[in-house]
Specification:
The protein has helices spanning 51-63, 167-184, 223-242, 304-309, 315-326, 330-338, 342-352, 357-374, 386-397, 403-408, and strands at 2-12, 67-68, 71-72, 75-78, 88-91, 98-108, 116-130, 134-138, 143-147, 154-160, 196-205, 215-220, 250-255, 260-266, 276-277, 284-285. By secondary structure, it is of the alpha+beta class. The termini are far apart.
């Protein structure tokens, strides 16, 4: 059997206000406290696009090697649900802001991370769209409450081609995307706060045969759960087919407590979203250095070349620099970048100690990181500061204490 995995990822844009209204974006605000008339779809209200959201999407597209469309269009996608007050979502179905990109990611071939292989997944498109509100189900009173705080928040939907074949690959690709978004500042991408939500499309087929019927596992909110959900779904489909069953084209959810996917709804009668052009928004026009009109107000246009020149070093470049500068192993550079704040911690220790970086990295990864993991602490919550660890390693280098004593400390 050949498994096929494609991902659709919704990243919440890091912006103070929503995509088409001036409402604040605020996590965990009191219910329905940051909702404008437009977010609530009051008649006569009109969308006004948020420049920051456009720039964030362009920046992300450039970082993912996409072609940026200088002219993109907005559409209405219709579906009827309590937390979507307008009865439609404004998205980019026909001509999105960015297309035809790629994302390179690395994964280890064994558990020791001693051998890394690099793979590439194609990015079909990146589109701007609004988030919907949130339904809160109160089972004890048999009622559903609606919170519209999230309605209208700007999202980037990153659509990946089905180029992956297992949960580990899907998880590695999403982790790399998450690091890129956080490096750019285009999204905080905190999965626990719903700022990065993943839908996985999974199918299996025999080699040389057409792709099988796919299922979609919706709204996975952790990288660990993503790997588990994809692998479970692949195994479930293989067992179903080998036992003479058929795979339904359906939407499923991952139950993290049971470790399995469960059916949500079938897709046999394909939902008709009745896409239509958004009549209240003109085409979104972007410029580069060549096409920029003379005497233009820079506050009124988005210049692709200007954004491209200001792109920061991406994670792959940062890792290469760490390896070159400190002589550490490539796999160690992955760990440094994967743990928030660990690169800075490592560099601060190196600056303050006579110990060679190759030995420092061993202490940080083997001793400090395992201690933090045991106690469920982040690097920023570490009781051992970089200067204290540097002092300890200096004592060790001068042979004033033994390695065993240092580890006890």
């Amino acid at each position: 059997w050949v498994p096929v995995v494609g991902l659709e990822i919704h990243a919440q844009i890091s912006s103070n206000s929503k995509l088409f209204s001036g409402s604040q974006v605020q996590f965990a605000a009191p219910p329905n406290s940051v909702v404008s008339f437009f977010d609530a779809s009051l008649p006569g209200t009109l969308p006004v696009i948020n420049r920051r959201c456009v720039e964030a999407a362009v920046m992300t597209g450039l970082a993912l090697n996409c072609s940026i469309n200088k002219r993109s269009l907005f559409d209405r996608k219709h579906y009827f649900y309590a937390d979507l007050p307008a009865g439609y979502q404004i998205t980019q179905q026909r001509v999105p802001i960015a297309v035809n990109g790629s994302l390179s990611y690395s994964l280890c071939t064994d558990n020791k991370m001693s051998q890394m292989i690099t793979k590439t997944v194609r990015i079909k498109q990146i589109q701007l769209e609004q988030d919907s509100g949130k339904s809160l189900h109160d089972d004890t009173r048999s009622q559903t409450l609606v919170d519209l705080n999230r309605a209208g928040v700007g999202l980037m939907e990153v659509v990946m081609e089905p180029d992956m074949c297992c949960g580990e690959e899907a998880a590695a690709a999403v982790r790399e995307l998450q690091l890129i978004l956080q490096t750019l500042g285009s999204s905080h991408a905190v999965m626990a706060e719903g700022q990065l939500r993943v839908d996985a499309n999974v199918s299996v087929h025999h080699p040389g045969e057409p792709y099988g019927v796919r299922t979609e596992v919706k709204n996975i909110n952790s990288i660990r759960f993503l790997a588990k959900a994809v692998d479970y779904e692949i195994q479930r489909q293989i067992e179903e087919l080998e036992n003479g069953g058929t795979i339904l084209n359906e939407t499923r959810a991952f139950d993290s407590k049971l470790g399995c996917t469960v059916p949500m709804r079938d897709k046999e009668g394909k939902q008709d979203y009745r896409f239509m052009p958004e009549p209240n928004l003109p085409p979104l026009i972007l410029y580069d250095a060549k096409s920029l009109p003379a005497n233009v107000n820079y506050q009124q246009v988005v210049n692709i070349d200007w954004i491209h020149e200001r792109l920061p070093d991406l994670p792959s470049v940062k890792r290469a620099k760490l390896v070159e500068q400190y002589g550490i192993l490539p796999e160690h550079s992955f760990t440094l970048l994967n743990e928030d704040g660990l690169t800075e911690f490592f560099e601060n220790v190196v600056k303050q100690t006579q110990m060679k970086p190759k030995k420092v990295i061993g202490w940080i990864l083997n001793d400090l990181l395992s201690y933090l993991n045991q106690h469920s602490l982040t690097v920023k919550e570490s009781p051992v500061s970089s200067s204290i660890l540097a002092d300890l390693l200096n004592l060790l280098e001068k042979k004033e204490i033994s390695s065993t004593a240092a580890k006890q400390v």
